Amino acid sequence: MNKLSLKDILKINFRGLKLIHNRNKASIPLEIADALLITLSSYWNFWFLARLIDHVSISAPSSVLITDTVLIVGGDFLLRTLKCIIDHLIYYDGSSLWEDTNLYLNRKLVSMDYEYMESEKIQNQKRNIDEMVNTRDGGGMNFLFWRIIGVVSYTLNIVISVVYMIQIISTGRSFFSDNTFKSILLSTLFIAIIIFLVLISMKRVKHLKEMIFHENELLIPYNREMRWYTNNCLEKEAFGKSIRLFHQQPLLENHLKALLTAGSKILICREKLEEKTQRITDLLQAGLVSLVYLYLGIMAIKGLLSPGDVILYAGSITIFASYFSEWIYVLTELMTNTAYVKAYFDFLDIPNKKYEGVLPVEKRDDDQFELEFRNVSFKYPGCKEYVLKDFSIRFRIGERLAVVGKNGSGKTTFIKLLCRLYDPTEGEILLNGINIKKYDYKEYLNLFSVIFQDFKLISLPLGENVSASIEYDKEKAIKSLIKAGMDDTLKEFDKGLNTILFTEFDTQGIDVSGGEAQKIAIARALYHDTPFIILDEPTSALDPLAEYEIYSKFDQLVGTKTAVYISHRLSSCQFCNDIIVIDQGKLIQRGSHEELVKDQNNLYYQLWSAQAQYYQ
Ligand code: ADP
Fold first, then answer.
1. pLDDT of residue 135
2. Are the C-beta atoms of residues 166 and 191 closer than 8 Å to each other?
3. What is the pLDDT of residue 588?
């Protein structure tokens, strides 16, 4: 944990409060009102009880005593009722803050440059924030929200009680025959003791909280692994089979036990320090409180205080005693929580590196968009090796381009660059002669429908999956599904487009097969009706013949659009009259199948011969 200066602590928490305030302008006023009510409730009864007792001791008229009693009972009831109402409002605001802060994080995650998505460092940064919120004694924005009330109300209570206690000390000036100097000295000494006590306690609690922050960081990998085992491994059918068949129960149990032991070792250390810190703060506080009680007792015996004063002062000492350690904790927690709030904002502040162009993409009914890779070289961020090297290619409009090559040769990377998920390290990609960076990114992306190898469908209604939207053209969605070969399956779905995919979150959902999922993904591409359609081996789990069937059928659906087919299986792309072969990031051959297969010294022929056994 990097040490934060007081200025940073204030700045970060102020930003946190601003975020809380901006999402609901009533939040902070409500919290302050709640804090004031807590303070007022603490003192209300003491004030009026002291008044009542003094009035009784001087035999005041019964109307005065009745007024005092009504003030005590009525005031107390009113304050408690008001507090109930405010607490109710705050409770829901706290929950919605949790939703909102999560929403901002997730919004950031899906809008940040794609290269961050693939960065383990950034992914961990996000996971750590989630873990910190959930870990015991963790923190974050919600913690800041809930602690505002504590900080304000405890501070007010402590300040008022200290003022009263100083008053007790000053009242005792007759001990010194009205020697003002000695009285001031005594009050100063008292304040000095309190400040000393506060500083010692805060230092100890701060040490504890810093240790907790550090330990929470250490706990993250254990918690994450535990969660993975419980959420993914133990509950998933696929694991369930191998666990049973290979008798993996003892293996898993051992591993989980080891994780739990390692995690609790860290927690036990913390608990010991927590215990010790709490006891020290309690002891220091007990010493001070006893001294003040003693002083109060002596003054009461000497008749220097009225019975009401004794009640009031004893009350303020009680308040001091009950809030002091809480106050120290909450103040220190707020300071140490700053590190969690900072982690939250650090994530939100990650700047996007990608140049955002503004040029609109020309709307063309004839889909005559020309794309060109000009001497493009690329290496992934943080990697030394080039994945694509001096890659140049111009797409022929309305034609089919097949991209083939061994696994890992750079085919998917070529598509990622085309869609600007990454920008080239060297060279440029042009659309109608203009660098694609200059175009408005959203408009540029609207040119492509890509079905990646690892395409994903979401556990949402089928129609929303196809259209990628809440509002959509139902007829077009059904047409796309039928074109993609889902007509028979669609008839079996009682709820049609409203059928929820997968059963993870809805027992009425439908678990679609791998083949059906591919068809839905294809329907999604067709629904979007873009000038370029790209299939990046979404069929790699199928056998070569089944893949060929899907590819060639898809080709009929594409019509006059420009299509790019990627596969490491040459058979799938035979129908394309334009095939490029990529090897180790370089474009090494281009031509039709017949042309390429003639060159027996080259990779295409070698791959073709090696794979021929599958489709002869
Ligand atoms: P293909 O699609 O031909 O199988 P890829 O384009 O997926 O190949 O990968 C080309 C090379 O780039 C491989 O060596 C792969 O390990 C590497 N690579 C892919 N994605 C990343 C990434 N996000 N970070 C670093 N290296 C990557």
1. 67
2. yes
3. 92
What residues contact residue 169 under an 8 Å CB cut-off, 6+ apart?
A: 183, 186, 187, 190, 295
Query: Which residues surround ligand 1 with Cβ inside 6 Å?
Result: 118, 380, 383, 387, 405, 407-413
Residue 580 has a CB neighbour count (10 Å cut-off) of: 23
| Side chain identity at residue 616, one-letter code | Q
Neighbours of 514 (CB within 10 A): 10
* Closest C-alpha residue for ligand 1 atom 5: 410
Q: What is the position in ligand 1's atom list of the atom closest to the CA of 414?
A: 6
Answer whether 502's CB lies under 8 Å from 459's CB.
yes
Q: Is 179 helix (H, G, I), strand (E, B) or coil?
A: coil
Kindly give the parts of the chain with pLDDT less than 70: 1-2, 134-138, 171-184, 186-187, 366-367, 539-543, 546, 613-616
Closest CA to 158 of 18, 289, 306: 289
> Considering only CA atoms, which residue is closest to atom 22 of ligand 1?
380
**Nearest residue (CA) to ligand 1, atom 1:** 408
What pLDDT was estimated at residue 361?
Answer: 83
Q: In the sheet that 586-591 helps form, which strands lie side by side, from edge to edge? A: 448-451, 532-536, 562-567, 400-404, 578-583, 586-591
Whole-angstrom distance, CA of residue 467 vs CA of residue 481: 11
86 class by beta-carbon count within 10 Å (0-12 exposed, 13-18 middle, 19+ buried)? buried
| Rounded Cα distance, 266 and 216, in Å | 9
Residue 393 in tokens: 């290619």
**How far apart (Å, rounded) are the C-alpha atoms in residues 311 and 50?**
6
Query: How far from chain centre, in Å, is Cα 614?
Result: 47
pLDDT of residue 411: 92
User: How far is the centre of ligand 1, averaged over its atoms, from the C-alpha of 29 (Å)?
Assistant: 53
Taking the C-alpha atoms of residue 60 and residue 52, their distance in angstroms, rounded to an integer, is 9
Q: Which atom of ligand 1 is nearest to the CA of 115?
A: 23
pLDDT value of position 584 = 93
Rounded to whole angstroms, the Cα distance separating 553 from 555 reads 5
Rg value, the chain, Cα: 36
Q: Of 375, 376, 456, nearest to 416 (Cα)?
A: 376
CA of 380 to the centre of ligand 1 (A): 8
74 CA from centroid of ligand 1 (Å)? 73
Q: How far apart are CA 503 and CA 386, in angstroms?
A: 42
pLDDT of residue 166: 78
Distance CA 512, CA 357 (A): 39
- Beta strand residue intervals within 289-396, DSSP E: 371-378, 388-394
